Amino acid sequence: MKLRTSLALALSIVACLAHAEKSSFVGGTLINPATSQVLENSVVVVDGERIAAVGTRKEMAVPTGSKWIDCKDKFILPGYIDTHVHFFQSGGLFTRPDVVDLTKVRPYADEIAGIKKNLPDTFARYLRSGITSVVDVGGPFWNFEVRKTANATEMAPRVAVAGPLISSVSRPQLDLGDPPIVKIDNPEQAREFVRKLAEQKPDLVKIWYIVNDEHPVDSFRPIVRATAEESHARKIRVAVHATELETARAAVEEGADVLVHSVIDKEVDDAFVKLLKDRHTILCPTLVVFERYGRTFANKLNLTPEEKAWGNPEVIATLDVTKIPQEQLPERIRTALANPDAALDRIKKTYDVALKNLKTLEDAGVTIAAGTDAGNIGTIHGPALFREFQLMKEAGLTPMQILQCATTNAAKLFGGETGAHTGKIDKSDFADLVILNSNPLNDIAHASDIDAVVKNGVLCPADQLAAVSH
Ligand SMILES: [Zn+2]
Fold first, then answer.
1. Do residues 241 and 283 make contact, with C-beta atoms less than 8 angstroms apart?
2. Ligand 1 centroid – CA 86 distance (Å)
């Protein structure tokens, strides 16, 4: 199985067409969510890594000497961006021993070694899903190596990263010497940790603002403030995990630039909406992850056709909890299996609030960036984004709004020079494109009807990319 995967991957790399001096994508319908512009019978000229010109055939001629790529009846979009993934997690059942301890079935060190070895395959699955950039919102210090590797690999998305999470709680089960989550007890510790992180030039600093009886909202506020001050002094933005309304409000008040999940405990109020608008906070809802732990544990996993086709089959195989011997099943899975309806009911209640909040924030003009939290148990690296699109549609977002979330808004979350030149299709932007066979504006489900993906000017036909996953 492993051999077949790596062989197929090698094939797919060979199949992608190397940079032509210049190529012209001719005759397709160009959809530029940044401007809501739709150009029929378009020409997109790519020169090396960048877009050199965009227009209609009426306005401009196809440059002589450029490679002509016929896009008649196709739809051209900026490459998708998933703004919330974790490369230190596989998406499989053994990837979060702090949530369900199955280390007797698979030691956590083996899981991490497998994840590192499999990174080229994981990268390729993002491209297969039309995702040309991702933001890794927190992991061990080796995340910075992942960014370096991805950005030097042709068959990989562009990667922005945060380092280890500054957390209100500890997770010793994940500590193999380079922990992804670091408990910080006071503001001075927070400042010191930010200074250490800053040496690695993180794209974001991430805070894990977990609230419970022992850790009330206010006790961690000074740490959030110190983290934000120290980060902002170095021009680094701060992303905060906060899923309750009061936690999210506190996070933004103390300086969060990005909220990385939905508010799921209650409906957002006008003051919260105004706060996000005034501060230009970006919110990434990560709807899909809210159903995947519960559904996996209850043996009710609802993977989409895209996930089944393009997700890593070895990872997906681990998600069948019925394969684990009864006596090794952790209590949490045992309980879920005994009463799957209770698990599904909890998910429904979460979505009743989260989807409504998404619609409220979108309507109010808050910047929403699409993201999945891929890597968490049951949330599949790459194609999970299409389940996120379905849920955003259920929330009431239009196809164009969803595409904006996954391109131009997501590029703002990605940030930096790269973010400024991705997520849209304009002259001098990076040539990162998705070419579709059917119109996503008619139905967002068409967003996965991928004909080809262009990353950094390199054209990869989908049937060649498909070799990765079949
Ligand atoms: Zn996350």
1. no
2. 6
